[in-house]
Amino acid sequence: MTRRQILVTNDDGIDADALLPLSAALSAVGDVHVIVPERNWSGASHSITLFRPLRCRPTELRNGHAAYMTDGSPTDCVRLAVLGFLKQKPDLIVSGINRGMNLGDDITYSGTVAAAMEGLLSNIPSIAISIGAFGGDIDYSVAASFATLLARNVFERGFMSDALLNVNVPSLPREKIPGVAVTRLGKRNYQDRLIERLDPYGNPYYWVGGPALSEQADEGTDVEAVRKGMISVTPIRLDLTDHALIESLAAWDWGWTAPVTVSAEG
Q: Which residue, 17, 52, 72, 161, is most buried by CB atoms nearer than 10 A?
């Protein structure tokens, strides 16, 4: 039986501590290929490289597992794999494990989720997985184990959908996580600020950002699930159309007449 091909990527870069436990865990269900950015691309969203060549160099993880690192974005990593850099097209994309949750509005900025979106655009089942922790001393074993469980389900159930799975795992021991919740996106409210400073030469530079000041933990949302210490699995579609508004907007008076034909002479 042909082994399944799994692409692991991320937006935290080649130095991310999560790569080793994630790739090791997924090796139980398929052949794991690692293509990741050579630096951190957090917040890169669904950016692609268009106006310069991409470099992709071989390297190794700390356990000797072969990997590749590119100077492109997380989305570029998936595009490389799908468009022929790998000998076989992946059967599954797993993006992560991201340091810090990707909840609610976060997914619009997340390079982790964007890599999974690119897999979905290529008709490949895709998972984005994040953990609720920051720093260098993080136990990724529970999240890696859950990613493997999801991979088994995808392969055994023949999961083909127009949605990716966005997963958020609490940074808790396995026995303290009460279960898994299938959720919808919640809402995180940020109060970003523009901070202006001067460099040693008197030239201004800026920091933009701020913490999430509040979260709407409505029932059934990813925010509520992780507050309860549960693993959240959110199916996300790429169709952003507000279908409920189509009929309403169609009734507007647009004040527009038939198109005017302009001759070549002006």
A: 72
99 found inside a domain? yes
Residue 90 is part of which domain span? 5-188+216-250
Per-residue CA distances from 219 to 117, 171, 173 (Å): 26, 21, 24
Pick the residue with more confidence: 261 or 38? 38
What are residue 236's DSSP bridge partners?
164
**Is residue 221 scored above 80 in pLDDT?**
yes
Question: What's the one-letter identity of residue 104?
Answer: G
What was the pLDDT predicted at 118?
Answer: 96
Say which residues have a Cβ less than 8 Å from residue 159's Cβ, sequence separation at least 6: 125, 153
**How distant, in Å, are the alpha carbons of 43, 92, 110 from that of 114?**
10, 15, 6
pTM over 0.70: yes
| Residue 138 belongs to a domain | yes
* Among the ranges given (116-125, 184-193, 196-205), the one the predictor scored with the smallest mean pLDDT: 184-193
CATH number of the domain to which 30 belongs: 3.40.1210.10
Residue-level pLDDT at 191: 77
In a domain, 194, yes or no: no
